[in-house]
Write a structure and sequence with these properties.
The protein has about 100 residues and is mainly alpha-helical. The protein contains 3 helices and 2 strands, in the order αβααβ. The protein has 2 domains: about 40 residues; about 55 residues, Membrane-bound Lytic Murein Transglycosylase D, Chain A.
Amino acid sequence: MYSLVNNSYNRRRKNNYILRLLIITFLILFIITTYVYKISGNKMIEYREITVEDGDSLWNIALKHSDGSNDLREIVYEIKKFNNLKDVVLQPGQKLKIPVKI
């Protein structure tokens, strides 16, 4: 009789240990994911892809894709940042991703 009670106790103890381990693992992964998301600054942003045409500049592209509620300088900055552009020189045929909600 004692061995049956002891086996049941050990099984419950083992199951509790596994459950606690799973909960702690989940919490650690959740915290790490949240932290990485916050420090990376990566957000799920919708974008449309455009092809740069002859004579296009970041300024007139920003003007074409602006709804008029934001400062164009901020829009140009966002386009540069979103496309990892070092300068404002564009080449015809170049593909740019334009954030939909700037």
